[in-house]
Amino acid sequence: MLDTRNSLTYLQPMHDLESDNYVDGSSNDQNDENDEKLKMLYKEILDYFQKYEPFRNSDFSTTHLANALHTNVTYISKSIKFNANTNFTTFVNKYRINLVKELIDNNVLEKHSLLYLYTSAGFRHQSTFNKVFKQIEGVTPTEYVKVKAENNTYAQDEKQLSEKI
User: Fold this and answer.
1) Which three-class secondary structure state does DSSP give residue 85?
2) R_g of the chain computed on alpha carbons
3) Of 123, 36, 43, whose CA–CA distance to 80 is shortest?
4) 22-81 pLDDT per residue, tens
5) What's the pTM?
6) CA–CA gap between residue 64 and residue 53 (Å, rounded)
7) Which of 104, 100, 87 is nearest to 56 (CA)?
8) 15 pairs with which residues across the strands?
9) For 109, which DSSP code?
């Protein structure tokens, strides 16, 4: 028979974000320790994302991240929820959208298609990319590109005008 009494010690209490309390009534010292662990793991997640850009892989998952950071998917999810107040998928998609925006802002779209941009950021399908972009940015990718082009044209006109004066 398997003795599971000690194997449950790794479980952490659930954090109620609205009340900033743990639902199991655990002590504040334990809460503070758990909060600190979640913050430390979140810093590791951010460092990993900045260093390796794993979100560019369309197959990237919580399992991949947990393996890379030598932890488990539950802690990954809890850490992201606790620190960023979002889920893993939205967290990853924000990185992907920010990369696409950076590429657009750096005029990569002049040499490559939007398909190239969103697939290199980790999206597989245009429909998913369009939906996520609209959810995060409030405008479609096409509208974003159009506004950027208009702003660039305006900035160039301003520069030319100031050079003439």
Assistant:
1) coil
2) 22
3) 43
4) 455 556 788 999 999 999 999 999 999 999 999 999 999 999 999 999 999 999 999 999
5) 0.76
6) 12
7) 100
8) 22
9) G
